[in-house]
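Case study B.
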Amino acid sequence: MSDFEQNRAFWDRHSDEYQQTHREHIGRSEPRWGMWQLPESELQVLGDVAGKDILELGCGAAQWSILLAGLGARPVGVDNSERQLEHARDALAAAGLDFPLVHAPAETVPLPDASFDIVFADHGANRFADPYAWVPEAARLLRPGGLLAFSGSTPFEAMCWNEPADRMEPELHLDYFAMHRIEESDGPVQFELPYGEWIRLFRANRFEIEDLREIQPPPAAESTYRTAEETEWARKWPMEQIWIVRKER
Amino acid sequence: MSHVDRNREAWTEFAPEFAECAPRAWGRDEFEWGVWNVPESELGALPDVAGMDTVELGCGTAYISAWLARRGARPVGIDITPAQLETAGRMQAEFGLDFPLLEASAEDVPLPDESFDLAISEYGASIWADPYRWIPEAARLLRPGGHLVFLVNGTIMILCSADEELPPGRELLRPYFGMHRFEWDGTGGIEFHLGYGEWISLLRENGFAVENLIEIQAPPEGESHRFPGLPDREWARRWPSEEIWVARKRS
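Model:
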């Protein structure tokens, strides 16, 4: 089974439980990023979205895209899991909205070249698709000067996860130079790259690097994704980051 | 005492040891990076330097500038430590290479704006000067389109190091957030180390485009280094002990 098929099966299987568990945490009234739901109004990653064509890679139940539509954007949501998109369709109907939802892996998106101003993901397809395939795809889909922004895990998290003990540790386990495809027993296939690999991949696809926001959750931050101990770990070392890059004109 | 004075004092003390190694570094034909002597031909960190005006920030014994000179560049070396510059001067005479050496801090360089095509630092100002001061200086010194290439200690390695004299282990001993000024126990020098995102913002704020970050993996075999505070080969095969940032001043 290919990685995208394995991850599709994983998300079809886990979608209901995922949406149930995180419904309130990620179903806020304004766009928020990541595991601790930090507001876009503070982070200012996407800028003004009104009138922009925006593609969300790994949209899940489309919580983000629905809020962006409310801010005047023209969103399109892509997800690799049909079950996730069923949740998204329900959510669109409930919000009285109608925008395209596309069932596809982020490595091969059936949409035309240069058709978006912003491509983004919030712990979306960027975690579950191979960067060497989806970053070129994002570059193809963006117009010149378009923005690519995505939040996800970090090399530190990948290195310091003690899988047998099922916890974060202040200790290096995974080899940094071997980082790319990370497969855990019973889990989806996930991807993370060394910092320099990301930079070279962006440059090879004609992206200019604008920022790497390393998220330090505020002391009182809460999460349905992370335990209090893990949030404490994340106050010391980066567990979440947002890359912000722009396609050259 | 300012970090500049402290570091001049520390490097005056280290200078004899580096004077001893200088002839060997100056005598090498290949341009090699860092303590694992990885050849530039493998890393590709530098542009073609022939005909370029280059400034080496924290040049020490100036072996980098010597290599640049042999490749057709017009180097200038600056350093805060007279004892190191004395060694550099002796090497120039010994190897028949002549270029300006200047006693100055990379945080305040007495040279005109936009007078260089390449600013370079290997274990120099890149570690011993405050990046919030020397990066703006490098930006000022470079012409539009000019290259900035500097080598620093591996960020992960710094987090795993207990002391300047002990090699890193696998445990993260200090937080990443807030990395900046480091004063190790029992030694004279003050070092500066930033996180990845912080380097990117600082470079961007000073008009640089970030072109590359080359994380050096120790080669499988070869000569060992002589620094007790740096990792052994096994560690440095798994995690980066050195990182080269490559940036370019936007036109």
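Residues 155 and 195 of chain A are 7 Å apart (CA to CA). The remaining cases will be described in the next quarterly update.
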